[in-house]
């Protein structure tokens, strides 16, 4: 029992430590540009216009769940659109790539999976942003909302902050999010360890349509262990390509954790989560319907 707990504790600590550089750099840049641009930092990433989701998918496909956490923070600060965040979440490969490489999956197969996730991220993100523009829906988020939530004190500065103040605020943001992610990752890791991979196998195996929906639910678990389980089950031929894609498209590591921690718009966060889940299920079912594989 003690050995299992220490293993879960170690995994949670490692997963959290990996995020720290991404979070700190992201928050530091956000604070720096906000201080220098006098409130115009929200236009920084919007310069790519409707191609924001394409840029998001290109960044998200890099095998580090830290990018999804960074994107969630940018979204909470009003720097990127809903479609761009969605494209990052859908394209991010999380722990899939390291597992594929360790299992000597052919490079061509790996490339097709990554390309499919990136293309799906771009198409879905652009479609969502297009619909939101037609409905004239606009985000009212701002970086100061993020500061209000974290109580870092940077919103109280009357003049543009110096490097010391910027660094302090970024550090406070990073420490708050790191502590939150570690606590939740520890709890989720313990639950997954208690349930066991065999329980997941029994639920998903030989259930094509239901398996897609259930795999996407597992993918929503904001922990890198979710992508590990889904990838391993696929490599063991217990999941179809559609089921795997549904779970891995939805899985964005701790991105959802960071989104709910940094954004005060709870209803909007829940709607985004539902949209993410629906997107993963829809694409997974399409793979099943067309009998697509890699």
Automatic annotation (TrEMBL):
| Xref: InterPro entries | ArsP_2
Is DNA damage among this UniProt entry's keywords?
no
Metal-binding keyword on record:
no
Q: Any stretches that span the bilayer, and where are they?
A: 69-90, 110-128, 177-197, 209-235, 241-260, 272-292
Keyword tags:
Membrane, Transmembrane, Transmembrane helix
Q: Name the chain's protein.
A: Uncharacterized protein
What organism is listed for this UniProt entry?
Pseudoramibacter porci
Q: Upper taxonomic classification of the species?
A: Bacteria, Bacillati, Bacillota, Clostridia, Eubacteriales
């Amino acid at each position: 029992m003690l050995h299992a707990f220490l293993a879960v504790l170690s995994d949670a600590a490692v997963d959290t430590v990996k995020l720290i550089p991404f979070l700190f750099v992201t928050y530091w840049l956000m604070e720096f540009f906000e201080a220098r641009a006098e409130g115009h930092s929200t236009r920084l990433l919007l310069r790519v216009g409707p191609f924001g989701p394409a840029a998001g998918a290109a960044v998200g496909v890099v095998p580090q769940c830290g990018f999804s956490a960074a994107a969630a923070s940018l979204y909470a600060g009003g720097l990127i659109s809903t479609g761009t965040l969605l494209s990052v979440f859908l394209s991010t490969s999380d722990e899939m790539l390291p597992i594929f490489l360790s299992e000597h999956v052919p490079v061509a197969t790996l490339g097709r999976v990554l390309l499919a996730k990136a293309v799906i991220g771009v198409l879905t993100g652009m479609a969502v942003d297009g619909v939101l523009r037609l409905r004239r829906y606009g985000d009212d988020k701002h970086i100061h909302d993020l500061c209000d939530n974290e109580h870092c004190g940077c919103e109280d500065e009357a003049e543009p902050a110096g490097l010391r103040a910027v660094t302090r605020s970024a550090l406070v943001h990073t420490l708050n999010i790191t502590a939150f992610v570690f606590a939740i990752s520890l709890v989720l890791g313990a639950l997954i360890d208690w349930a066991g991979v065999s329980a997941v196998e029994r639920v998903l195996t030989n259930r094509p349509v239901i398996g897609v929906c259930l795999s996407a639910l597992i993918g929503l678990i904001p922990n890198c262990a979710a992508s590990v389980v889904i990838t391993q089950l696929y490599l063991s031929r217990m999941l179809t390509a559609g089921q795997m894609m549904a779970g891995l498209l939805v899985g964005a590591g701790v991105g959802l954790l960071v989104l709910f921690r940094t954004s005060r718009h709870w209803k909007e966060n829940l709607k985004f989560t539902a949209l993410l889940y629906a997107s993963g299920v829809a694409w997974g079912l399409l793979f099943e319907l067309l009998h697509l594989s890699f």
